[in-house]
């Protein structure tokens, strides 16, 4: 089901207009080496899950800081999402909007729906925060005198959260019944740990992430993002 927009005719009647194709911004040169970790991946995945066609506008690092892009995203980042007159930023907010407007990512039952939304917030606020702290520690603080003492503490905080999440997931396929936007966001966040090997310490979480990656919608989104990375690696053509 697509998001549908309505207009008023000259007689005051409500008529359905053509569905608008959303536009998502993404890195012109993805900095993650084609691993699917840039946050536009979350938005692409959500759109693929619900079957909503979309367009991508690639943005350079320089253009991200220019006034035109800051008008869409005040912090000069990606992704942004444009749908007619609506402009959104922050991947979680965009995925929530997509899930609200289409069937497939949020349950019909009100309580189950609220729980799925709760897991979206948990992924971004509780799980992702220490993971991002780890990335900051490794890539920006490696030359500090206290790096060797800080790194194990950051890793321990992540393991505490993974242990709690693993206990809650147990032997289930997904966090709360059927796959939802909560799972989409959680898998996307956990993928940031894949290269570290920490995820392998929790067998059920590793399998959980693999199930997410195996979804057809995820594969389509990943392939589309990877194609951008591949194109960015080609030498520029000379006139």
The arrangement of helices and strands along the chain is EEEHEHHEEHHHHHH
Strand order of the largest sheet: 4-3-5-6
Please outline the major beta sheet: 4 strands, mixed
CATH class of the largest domain: Mainly Alpha
Q: What is the approximate shape? A: globular
Topology:
Blueprint: E1 6-8, E2 14-16, E3 23-27, H1 40-50, E4 55-59, H2 61-64, H3 67-70, E5 80-83, E6 86-89, H4 91-101, H5 110-140, H6 147-169, H7 181-190, H8 203-214, H9 216-232
Parallel strand pairs: 3-4
Antiparallel strand pairs: 1-2, 3-5, 5-6
Helix pairs in contact: 1-4, 1-7, 1-9, 5-6, 5-7, 7-8
Q: If you had to describe this structure to a student in words, what would you say it looks like?
A:
The protein is an alpha+beta fold and 239 residues long. It has 2 domains: 6-101, Glutaredoxin (3-Layer(aba) Sandwich), CATH 3.40.30; 110-215, Glutathione S-transferase Yfyf (Class Pi), Chain A, domain 2, CATH 1.20.1050.10. Helices cover 51% and strands 10% of the residues. α1 runs parallel beside α4, α5 packs antiparallel against α6 (147-169) and α7 packs across α8. The protein starts with 5 loop residues before the first strand and ends in a 7-residue tail after the last helix.
């Amino acid at each position: 089901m697509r998001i549908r927009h309505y207009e008023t005719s000259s007689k005051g009647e409500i008529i359905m207009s053509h569905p608008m194709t959303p536009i998502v911004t993404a890195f012109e040169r993805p900095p993650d080496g084609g691993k699917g970790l840039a946050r536009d991946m979350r938005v692409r995945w959500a759109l693929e899950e619900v079957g909503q066609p979309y367009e991508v506008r690639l943005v350079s690092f320089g253009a991200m800081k220019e006034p035109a892009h800051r008008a869409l995203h005040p912090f000069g980042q990606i992704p942004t999402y444009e749908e007619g007159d609506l402009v959104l930023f922050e991947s979680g907010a965009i995925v929530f909007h997509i899930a609200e407007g289409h069937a497939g990512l949020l349950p019909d039952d009100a309580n189950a729906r609220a729980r799925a939304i709760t897991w979206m917030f948990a992924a971004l606020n509780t799980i992702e925060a220490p993971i991002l702290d780890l990335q900051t520690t490794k890539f920006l603080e490696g030359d500090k005198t206290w790096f060797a003492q800080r790194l194990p503490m950051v890793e321990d905080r992540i393991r505490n959260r993974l242990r709690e999440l693993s206990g809650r997931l147990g032997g289930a396929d997904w966090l709360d019944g059927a796959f939802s936007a909560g799972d989409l966001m959680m898998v996307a966040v956990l993928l940031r740990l894949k290269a570290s090997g920490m995820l392998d310490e929790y067998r059920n979480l590793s399998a959980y992430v693999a199930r997410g990656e195996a979804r057809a919608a995820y594969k389509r989104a990943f392939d589309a993002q990877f194609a951008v990375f591949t194109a960015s690696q080609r030498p520029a053509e000379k006139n």
